[in-house]
TrEMBL record:
It holds the Pfam family Fer4_10. GO terms for molecular function: 4 iron, 4 sulfur cluster binding; metal ion binding; oxidoreductase activity. It comes from Thermococcus eurythermalis. Residues 5-31, 34-63 form the 4Fe-4S ferredoxin-type domain. The keyword Acetylation does not apply. InterPro entries: 4Fe4S_Fe-S-bd, 4Fe4S_Fe_S_CS, Fe-S_Ferredoxin. This is Ferredoxin. Keywords: 4Fe-4S, Iron, Iron-sulfur, Metal-binding.
Length: 67
């Protein structure tokens, strides 16, 4: 199984276009007028959102799983 990741947004680049939320197959990103939100429980670590962002505002970090 692929490594679980969390998606990080660079708020200086993100202009809240909603593109990443639109392509996420797991509905793990929500974009509101007030900000960008990642829902780690839904993310399937496919990385599609990273490539979809037109300004390169998204990156991945390993998700630390608490045991
Ligand atoms: S990595 Fe995949 S599942 Fe996770 S937020 Fe990005 S598009 Fe959605
Ligand atoms: S696609 Fe990029 S610029 Fe658009 S809302 Fe997502 S992170 Fe922000």
């Amino acid at each position: 199984m692929a490594e679980k990741i969390k998606i990080i947004v660079n708020e200086d680049k993100c202009y809240l276009c909603g593109g990443c939320a639109g392509v996420c197959p797991a509905l793990a990103i929500e974009v509101h007028s007030s900000g960008w939100e990642f829902l780690p429980d839904k993310c399937i670590s496919c990385r599609i959102c990273i490539d979809a962002c037109p300004v390169g505002a998204l990156s991945a970090e390993p998700l630390e799983v608490s045991e």
